[in-house]
Amino acid sequence: MYLCDGKIGNNYKVSDIELPTNMEKRLEALGMTRGTSVAVLNSKSHGVLIVKVRGTRFALGRNITKNILVG
Amino acid sequence: MRENLTIGFIGNPNCGKTTLFNAYTGANLKVANWPGVTVEKVEGAIKDHDLNIRLVDLPGTYSLTSYTMEEQVSRQFILSDEVDVIIDVADASALERNLYLTLQLLELGKPVVLALNMMDIVEKRGMEIDTHRLPEMLGIPVIPVSARKRIGLDVLLHAAAHHKDCKDPECLIHHHKYKPKHRHDHHSEYAMVYSDAIEDKIDLIMAELKRKYPNLTNYRWHAIKLLEQDKEISERYPVSLPDVIDRNYESDIINEKYDFIQEIIREVLVNKDRQDALTEKVDQALTHRVWGIPIFLGIMAVVFFLTFTIGDWLKGYFEMGIESLSALLSDGLVAAGVNEMLRSLLVDGIVAGVGGILTFLPNIFILFLALAFLEDSGYMARVAYVMEGIMSKLGLSGRAFIPMILGFGCTVPAIMASRALENRRDRFKVMLITPFMSCSARLPIYILFAEMFFQEHAMLVAYSMYLIGLLVAILVAAVIHLIDRRKSENYLLIELPEYKIPSSRTVAIYVWEKVKDYLTKAGTTIFVASILMWVILNFGPQGYTTEMADSFGAILGHWLVPFFAPIGLGFWQIAVALIAGISAKEVVVSSCAVLFGVPNINSGAGMDTLVGILSASGFGQLNAFCLMVFCLLYIPCAAALATIRKESGSTRWMLLSALFQLVVAWVVTFIVYRIGLFI
What we know:
The complex is a heterodimer. Chain A is an alpha+beta fold. Chain A has a single domain (3-70), classed as Ferrous iron transport protein A (FeoA) (SH3 type barrels), CATH 2.30.30.90. Chain A has two helices and five strands. Chain A has helices at 21-29, 62-65; strands at 11-17, 37-43, 49-53, 56-60, 68-70. A seven-stranded mixed beta sheet of chain B has the order 2-3-4-1-5-6-8, with helices on both faces. In chain B, strands 7-9 form a two-stranded antiparallel ribbon. Strand 4 of chain A pairs antiparallel with strand 10 of chain B.
């Protein structure tokens, strides 16, 4: 499944990121690499999420969450 | 002779770096532009320890790759000979992520001192950091500080001064509790040691680099960057080792760094799970799926309510001061026998114009105080999330809404804040719509005209201006999005910091800067504009005249009336005030004071006089409303135009956007006027 379908309160493991290189590198620098655990803290409709990655909260837009494959 | 020492401050965004920097430099802070690049660095100087210490605050960054402009600039600056020692500021309450930048800095081979900031928050939450083990694992001094409480500041500076020549790590002690011993045992030399597979490659690349570029320093860092296929380093120091660099190893290197960070965290952080439950709770309300937007609108309504009510209450005292000053000056000048012309210039020109503007200072003060609170509390980042839904429908990222809110304060920093948007198209769009957000300079116009013509509904009318501005901005963005059908991909990615009580020092510095700007503007732009206004109103084709109707100003105004008449502003004085208002929006008010000969325009008596004059010429409620709408939307002030030119790098774009705003203002005011006439 993709991260945009994540439910509040659940944890997911990143299995692949399908974004333009620039964006992918920025996410990786923030610690969102393959295998990282992502917790969904809050969500709005259409996959706009607040997530917690390696102890930090981020707001992510749908264009990002719909391209992150999680398991 | 004092020795010079240059310290570079670097850290993640939101790590309290600027607070720390301000704690050291205080009032010595000055802003300078990087040569050739539009990224700003801030410098400050202090004297300590028989050293001339220069502090350089670099833009907040998560990493030192060469993907963004800021990161490239920071990296080049750190690598340059200009910097003697780096202070890496880390938010101790989010150590895991902050250490990633630390590991990258260590590889640069420059002296680094780690400042563990926000230790007070860590302690408050019941977490503990082993500040003895952490330096052993990193090989650099680690100094706990609290920038907000000003704890540990001297110790940090001492550490930096003493550490400036230490290029090799000290006290590296690494136990292999979790991993078996591996072939590349560099643990006594480097904090970050990679897996054997990666270290093998690093060795091979280093050997090749040494052969090909014998004058290079820090081979290890260059080798790692080549493995990551870093654009800048690969172009500058190409090596041909297709068997070694067979693919991009960046992800592997990042992963191994984070693995090491986890090892560090396991050893040094006690009670890791004590998370701040408060932020999560507050977020549940403020970023609520349904209530998020109403809460945001409510907060903004409170901000403006405070601006009007508390500001108005303080304003009374200012008026009394200006009034007595004006009377005193007038009497003094008469007694001193100063001639009539000079007396008129001083009293009717300068005191009326500049003095009138100064009485609005309390409103401006409260507005910026409220904005400083919003920025420092951590709420601003949430707004990007809350508005993402609406903004994405306009083809913009939620992040683009932050410059728009800043626009309520001043258009100039708001346009500069659009730099945070990666996408160039987005930046131009935001630059085009931000001037529609009602800035603080337009506040005096609303306060004056709303109070004169709408009495008890004054605040409601002023509110409506903010709403109209916001709606026009959104509408314009929507239309542009419709025309430019190109599917633009927007990526919202913003860190949501923990909520905190704003630091009084940070807020004070922020507000003082704004108040100072306002006073400077009153003393320069508005001062000059008031004199010019007086000149064109007191001189005509026949020379000096006390009959305003014969002045150059009147001639110019009458000439412009046909343009303004269809929108309910066909009064020559108003036309002149609006033209003058392009220098600064407050000038509309100061010009009215000069134009209508009302010395203390913002006082009860002054307003009564002005209403009398205006009403007599047929200027009523509807005209006042049209004037406010037009002032809200028309050409931004000269400072904003200059910023648009600088940020867009194009004079043509600046002129086009000014023309566009003028057209929008005219059309909207025309519609408002026609509807008003109908009602």
